[in-house]
Write a structure and sequence with these properties.
Helix 1 packs antiparallel against helix 3, helix 8 runs parallel beside helix 12 and helix 9 crosses helix 13. With 505 residues, the chain is an alpha/beta fold. The chain is globular, with a radius of gyration of 25 Å. Strand 15, helix 11 and strand 16 form a beta-alpha-beta unit. The chain contains 13 helices and 17 strands. It is an enzyme of class 3 (hydrolase). Catalyzes the hydrolysis of the N-glycosidic bond of AMP to form adenine and ribose 5-phosphate. Involved in regulation of AMP concentrations.
Amino acid sequence: MKKEKKTTTPQTSPQIAASEIVRQLRQIYDEAVAALQADLQAYLATRQKPSRPLRDAGRYCYPKLAIVWKGVLDDEDEALVMANRHPEVNRAYARFSRPGTYSSSITRPDIFGDYIEEQLDLLIRDYGAECTVSLSDQEIPYPYVLDGAGLDLNSVSAIDLSRHFPATELALIGNEVADGISFIDAEGHHPLVLFDGLRSDFSIARLKHYTGTPAEHTQGYILLTNYNRYVDVFVAYALEQLKKPDSPYTALSCCGNFTITRDTPDPEALIASSSWRKHQMPAYHLMAPGRQGISLVNIGVGPSNAKNITDHLAVMRPHAWLMIGHCGGLRASQSIGDYVLAHAYLRDDHVMDDVLPIEIPIPPIAEVQQAFHQAAVRVTGQDGEDLKKRLRTGTVVTTDDRNWELKYSLSARRFSQSRAIAIDMESATLAAQGYRFRVPYGTLLCVSDKPLHGELKLPGQANHFYERAIAEHIRIGIETVGILRDFGPKLHSRKLRAFDEPPFR
């Protein structure tokens, strides 16, 4: 009779609770920020240069989180084996690809602390992972600590500060981990997260610049649109929610860097007089505890904008982003105001071909597709054949040429071969970015014109269309978010994981 092999988990040191790990990360980060701010203040006041020995000792460095998983030990040959390494783990995140040490620099524990603690709790519970906190070798660039420091920078140039304090070095910031480029540091550690401290801080600063809101107000569910009138409807909905005593939402963070609560007098006037026009992609965050609220970002028009904003939103590790915008209908059977639920994309955007070749398929996320359909049923009150008359599923073309109609004869065959039913300038880019950054994605568009059939978006027609369609479309998006919340961890699809994935979501 064949002797059954026994496998055991290697002996590990006593575990440190995830909450204690986060506390240590916060302490090191806060001390580094305080030191950098104090030295900046001293330099601005007396031109006292920072101490080089103290910098070399890590005075301004991000904290580093390292996690070790020793794998499964075979009692007969004492070799680490990979079989049955995930006996009880069936989720898409907080899992190891192989035994080893995984590490990353960490920024803003005040923003990411709950996220880090969630991942650590699962890795410690299911793998017996060992965690340590230390100083990283990455210094915090001084531009990222200026907010709230009360520093007067008028007397000094940025070049002068960069001579004496750590500055942003673009060569150290990138998406190599997300793009599957093999990256093992000098200590032989695998990456722990998709975005390290430097990359995250870069995007946190850009989000504030582009959206006019603090990055930390970004919620876990993001609606992206390409028309400002969607913003008006969303803001009106948010203000109504805040008035309800049983509302799950606590505040509305508005473009222009101000927040409205249920106690804010005349919020409509405050929003109308705000400086949202100064910002390229205005955002409004309907906030709820645990970042379970909804963010709406008006990304404007074009794939470049779509890529730009999602490059930065991705570091916030949202649960999903959904495109709720307008498109041109390509089929004679469609009517103005019909919906298009994208289940495939033809990428003619050309903004990501070098990092995600166009032959890489962008699969639909089943949970998102189901949620969109269920939400449409609930909001429209239609189902079955009645809903099919208004909601069509198919391929969406995303182009980088706003005047694609002028070269339609060159594109017609390709559009036909793809079985495309709609065309826009953002959706495929947003889906490809979601795929690339492991953020569940989906697209529900509304037909605003049919250029191939002589139904152009003229001013009078546009106003009638907007009034009729926008409110319902936004309600479907919001209802979709509610359904996705109920999916919980199942929303994060394993089909978005690469072969050698970092442990953290």
